[in-house]
């Protein structure tokens, strides 16, 4: 017994210190007086700001307050929280989102809390206009891409296979004979015909592990990368690309629709549907598409452009309603127009980017979605503002379900993930 105790102590000492660090003792919370965080235009929202240390109110601290419409605050003020708590009121005179950010400095370190309230969000409408030749542009892009045979490749990854699924790294030709898309394909081990799911990625440059968890042994899943490079290389390769050739790829050639980086990304994602449809294991009826952030945009695009898609799951969708920022309203990531205007970029170039960006705005794809969808985002998201996600959701005419997780930022809550999983499995018919 003594030896066992000593062994346990030694093992505990070997655990990295970093693995034991969780959260902060000091927490700044900002909460509204409506439990659903929703108000009508003209109503006043009252926010409670609390600063706690070890769960107890911390008195005598000051907070720097920034408040107003999301991304366009109109009030800055420093207040004292005498007893560790304070009230703040705000309102909007038109539909939108009001955000208050409280930053407290304690012993030279900043602690931050925020809250975002909605004012008549169901009335929000996007500013994005639609090019007259939008459909013609994308029909041609896909027709040109499909002149090329898929010429698929498939390499078994034994170390990633499970008892339920065989896992492969795959590739297929995209929009040019020598331009490929790469991904991870999971196929049930048991012979049969199965529904399928296309997973499209958020922004960034990274490897992919594949999906063997959504419906183990019950569906085909293709998880794709979008940069035309293998998705199983060592991390350093992706880090070097992210800091080099692919740095800021989302802003490449925004003003030129035929040279925009996302042209091959969108066609490549749709060709992912072509790839799935070519698999002998596909059941011939069900293909869903899902993704978050950049993947939310791609889910809208794929569903709009390929009616073989039978459902979509969209989480905090980026790249929606860039044009709003011409009107001092928060648009979607990557906020190209916002930063150009703030940086004093020539108005002529901004106008070209607005016009070119319309071909790649999630709003114009959302207008064409006809499949049932599940949509989810957070009010406190500072990357993809709820303004753009909500206004995009409002114009979708297809059957739709909205699931808001008000407090979440640009990440998932467990309950949100569980709800997405339940919707996806139901649509796949594998509950």
Describe, in plain words, how this protein is organized in 3D.
With 431 residues, the chain is α/β, with parallel strands linked by helices. The protein folds into two domains: 26-123, Immunoglobulin-like (Sandwich), CATH 2.60.40.2550; 135-428, Rossmann fold (3-Layer(aba) Sandwich). Helices cover 26% and strands 29% of the residues. It is built from ten helices and 18 strands. The strands form three sheets. The chain has a nine-stranded mixed sheet, sandwiched between helices.
Secondary-structure map with pairings?
Blueprint: H1 2-14, E1 26-32, E2 38-39, E3 45-53, E4 56-57, E5 61-69, E6 75-81, E7 85-90, E8 96-106, E9 109-119, H2 134-145, E10 153-156, E11 165-173, E12 180-188, E13 194-199, E14 220-224, H3 235-242, H4 262-278, E15 282-292, H5 294-305, E16 311-315, H6 336-342, H7 347-357, H8 362-366, E17 373-377, H9 386-395, E18 400-404, H10 414-428
Parallel strand pairs: 2-9, 13-14, 13-15, 15-16, 16-17, 17-18
Antiparallel strand pairs: 1-3, 3-4, 3-7, 5-6, 5-8, 8-9, 10-11, 11-12, 12-14
Helix pairs in contact: 4-5, 6-7
Which secondary-structure class do the elements indicate? Answer: alpha/beta
The Rg value, from CA coordinates, equals: 24 Å
Largest sheet: 9 strands, mixed
Under CATH at level 1, the class of the largest domain stands as Alpha Beta
**Can you give the helix content as a percent range?**
25-40%
The CATH architecture of the largest domain is 3-Layer(aba) Sandwich
CATH topology of the largest domain: Rossmann fold
Could you tell me the mean pLDDT? 95
Count, helices: 10
Terminal-residue CA separation: 47 Å
The total strand number stands at 18
Regions with little confidence, pLDDT below 50 for 5+ residues: 1-18
User: How much strand content do the residues show?
Assistant: 25-35%
CATH superfamily of the largest domain: Alpha/Beta hydrolase fold, catalytic domain
H-E order:
HEEEEEEEEEHEEEEEHHEHEHHHEHEH
Number of domains: 2
Overall shape: globular
Strand line-up of the largest beta sheet: 10-11-12-14-13-15-16-17-18
């Amino acid at each position: 017994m003594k030896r066992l105790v000593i062994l346990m102590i030694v093992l505990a000492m070997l655990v990295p210190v970093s693995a034991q660090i969780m959260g902060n003792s000091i927490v700044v919370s900002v909460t509204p007086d409506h439990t659903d965080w929703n108000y009508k235009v003209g109503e006043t929202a009252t926010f409670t700001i609390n600063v706690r240390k070890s769960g107890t109110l911390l008195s005598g601290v000051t907070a720097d307050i920034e408040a107003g419409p999301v991304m366009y605050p109109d009030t800055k003020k420093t207040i004292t929280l005498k007893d560790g708590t304070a009230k703040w009121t705000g309102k909007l005179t038109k539909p939108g989102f009001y955000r208050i950010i409280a930053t407290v400095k304690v012993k030279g370190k900043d602690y931050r809390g925020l809250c975002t309230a909605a004012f008549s969000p169901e009335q929000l409408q996007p500013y994005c206009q639609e090019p007259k030749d939008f459909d013609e542009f994308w029909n041609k892009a896909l027709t040109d891409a499909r002149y090329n045979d898929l010429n698929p490749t498939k390499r078994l990854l034994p170390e990633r296979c499970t008892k339920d699924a065989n896992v492969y790294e795959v590739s297929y030709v995209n929009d040019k004979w020598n331009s490929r898309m790469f991904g991870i394909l999971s196929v049930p081990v048991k012979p049969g015909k199965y529904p399928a799911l296309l997973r499209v990625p958020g922004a960034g440059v990274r490897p992919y592990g594949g999906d063997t968890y959504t419906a183990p042994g019950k569906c085909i899943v293709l998880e794709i990368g979008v940069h035309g490079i293998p998705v199983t290389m060592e991390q350093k390769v992706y880090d070097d690309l992210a800091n080099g050739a692919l740095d800021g790829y989302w802003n490449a050639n925004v003003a030129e629709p035929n040279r925009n980086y996302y042209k091959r990304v969108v066609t490549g994602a749709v060709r992912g549907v072509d790839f799935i449809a070519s698999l002998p294991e596909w059941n011939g009826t069900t293909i869903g598409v899902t993704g978050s952030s950049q993947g939310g945009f791609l889910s809208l695009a794929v569903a709009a452009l390929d009616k073989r898609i039978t459902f979509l799951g969209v989480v905090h969708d980026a790249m929606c309603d860039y044009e709003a920022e011409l009107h001092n309203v928060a648009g979607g990531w990557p906020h190209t127009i916002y930063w150009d205007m703030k940086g004093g970029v020539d108005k002529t170039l901004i106008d070209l980017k607005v016009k070119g960006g319309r071909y790649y705005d999630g709003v114009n794809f959302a207008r064409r979605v006809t499949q049932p969808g599940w949509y989810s985002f957070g009010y406190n998201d500072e990357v993809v503002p709820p303004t753009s996600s909500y206004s995009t959701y409002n114009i979708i005419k297809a059957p739709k379900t909205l699931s808001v997780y008000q407090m979440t930022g640009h990440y998932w809550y467990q309950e949100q993930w569980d709800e997405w999983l339940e919707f996806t499995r139901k649509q796949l018919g594998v509950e």
